[in-house]
């Protein structure tokens, strides 16, 4: 029997296989939504092309080898 509500780790009944399957489907669906949104943002900002290839490969100055940087640690 499908579960109509949105499940979380705190609310899913792991003894109920149908509920566990619904939970995993919700997690995967939300994950794909986030991946697609991130890809759209990268394409809109000119970082990635339509095929997923990086268009910008140059590192910022503070990330280049030998740069004087402080990570605060």
Q: Quick one: how many beta strands?
A: 0
Mean pLDDT: 89
Oligomer: single chain
- What structural category do the secondary elements indicate? mainly alpha
Order of helices and strands: H
Q: What percent of residues adopt helix (DSSP H or I)? A: 25-40%
Radius of gyration: 20 Å
What is the makeup of the main sheet? none
Supply the number of structural domains: 1
Sum up the overall morphology in one term. elongated
Alpha plus pi helix count = 1
Contiguous uncertain segments of 5+ residues = none
Beta-strand percentage range: under 5%
Q: How far is the N terminus from the C terminus?
A: 51 Å
Report on this model:
By secondary structure, the protein is an all-alpha fold. It has one domain (1-73). Helix content is 38%, strand content 0%. It has one helix and no strands. It has one helix spanning 17-44. The radius of gyration is 20 Å and the shape is elongated.
How is this fold's topology laid out?
Blueprint: H1 17-44
Task: Offer a quick outline of the entry.
The chain is mostly helical and 73 residues long.
Which features would summarize this protein structure in a list?
single chain, elongated, 1 helix
